[in-house]
Amino acid sequence: MELSERKKKILQYVVDDYIETAVPVSSKSLTERHLSNISSATVRNELSALEELGYLTQLHTSSGRVPSAEAYKLYVSDLMVKDKLSDKELDYIKKIFLEKADNLEEVIKNTTKIISELTSLTSVGVVSPDVGEKINVIKFFRFKPDTALVLIVTERRLLKDNYINVPESMTDEQLVEAETVLGKLCSGRSFEEICSIKDDISSEFAGYKNIFLNLVEALKVYMTVKESDVVMEGQDKILNHPEYADINKIKNFLSVVTQKDKVMTLLSGDGRDIKINVKIGTDGYEEIPDDCSLVTATYSANGVKIGTYGVIGPIRMDYQKVVAVLENVGKILESILTNR
Amino acid sequence: MELSERKKKILQYVVDDYIETAVPVSSKSLTERHLSNISSATVRNELSALEELGYLTQLHTSSGRVPSAEAYKLYVSDLMVKDKLSDKELDYIKKIFLEKADNLEEVIKNTTKIISELTSLTSVGVVSPDVGEKINVIKFFRFKPDTALVLIVTERRLLKDNYINVPESMTDEQLVEAETVLGKLCSGRSFEEICSIKDDISSEFAGYKNIFLNLVEALKVYMTVKESDVVMEGQDKILNHPEYADINKIKNFLSVVTQKDKVMTLLSGDGRDIKINVKIGTDGYEEIPDDCSLVTATYSANGVKIGTYGVIGPIRMDYQKVVAVLENVGKILESILTNR
DNA sequence: GTTAGCACTCTTTTGGGCTGACTGCTAATT
DNA sequence: AATTAGCAGTCAGCCCAAAAGAGTGCTAAC
Fold it and tell me: What is the pTM of this model?
């Protein structure tokens, strides 16, 4: 069922005001602030209808109205007016990105830093796993008799955090040969493809089957999100929100937001596209406290996914700002990474 | 001035009880729990003398006594009886370390995890910088026309987070030669030494002076503590302490303990030796809130410093436990890293 | 459909009074 | 000279009642 224009407007004002003040919104304050042309009694009738429809709740019979999770969803999708960032804020984003953007890891750190800074919320980010990435170069570097570091260059980054076992009997020359042969096998192919050719390895590569299998194991590590791919910033920002005055709530929130594995499962779900993704209330996400929202965006450059970023905060957060920040950070980031 | 034996004993009991209960300690409870042979009035006289001496304070005229920072210091250095860990706890430590100790970074993560777990406090750790480390191998890996990844193997770890610029005109063969030549120059020498030979580079190496200078810059990065060397665990643990019921205190604490750079400056100070190091109250450390303590220990194996680890928490923390954990983690860690 | 007005509900604040947990002091005791 | 019993004094914490304040819902009039 469709809401009347006036109901929409009133609901928008309620959410606006509640986000701004954190105080239940009364009919009187609405007429004073936004609706001087109609009386508070009329507004009261509308409010009580909106409550009936599930968009508003009251803490007790004589308190003002508070938006429900439903109301926030409608607000974000339909009601809210999109915010613009100031030139100062845009310059700040550009400045940070241009300062240092050597490698993907650095970029991610900066991205979450910017987002947390501009939204005054806890921000989280995760690099998309390398599933579909194409491999350019593979290199082995032996640093102990029986282990070698694996270096992999893909289109978007240099992977250098994985070790494989190599037989001690293998000479350095043989390892270089393995590198050349397996390099030939892998380059130009994606992680997925390589893992799938596991068994029917042709005779040309047969001598290096064991090394290859070890390599496949190493590749697999990059195909799922790892804790080290998760970045978090500004975990203390939640304390600036008046509704988080309760120790248990804080504890609850921090127990999610100080543990990478929890944030990981949260973010690994939605890597679909560049669009903004809003989860309000639990929405089936048991990891988030149910008075929290998670707003994320997935960025790409040159058709390659960079990662998913976003904020976690109280359900009463400044969605206008958050969406504006995520959109602009995305635009600027993508343009910087694309032009080079 | 030296305290009488009885005063020491009483002060010890006060600190013991206060750490246990978080409630100001009264003369009556002291006689009931520990001093049944003397009367509460006598204890009152002693308490008031200890207050005079600056070891105890009162919140208001009719409250029990609370230890001052001075009292905690004396307690840790002289008064407290050393705690022993249970076999279960010792086994837990060993289990975790034996599970995974491939590379130094992993070990550090585990160390802080164990410490936080066993003490129920926020724990922090930092790898000691590589200043005095001797280099074994240096390797360049070109992954863009003008940049190469620098791999450095030292006695204790593989460093792989630094890039240098190389001239695009340089062929891969030339780069390999640079690697061999500079490898000869550097291997067996410490970071410090290499940086100091900067200028009077002998003719043999003259052709690679620019690469060498870039390499020196890369080395320098490893000679100071970096944010990525800092690890933190259990930032939410502070919320279990009843004296941290105040939002502002929590905010204060978290603003330190969620920011790596702040923790970094805290820890980079004292890398002297294996001894336990206790900073109680501010003690001139403006980064810590003044109702907090920082207890750290620096570990080594085979004469090589591994890093500095410790806990940050309320001044009223269980020092017996903390010291016991730090000592035992150190012993086990050092023995594991030494025997191999 | 809108509005003024009033009764009603519920939270929050205020303040008094009481209790209980201490201490400090004094005078008596060992 | 050190210890102790006893008592007066202080202060936080709790309970309770009363008052104030903020808002709603409803009704009757416009």
Answer: 0.90
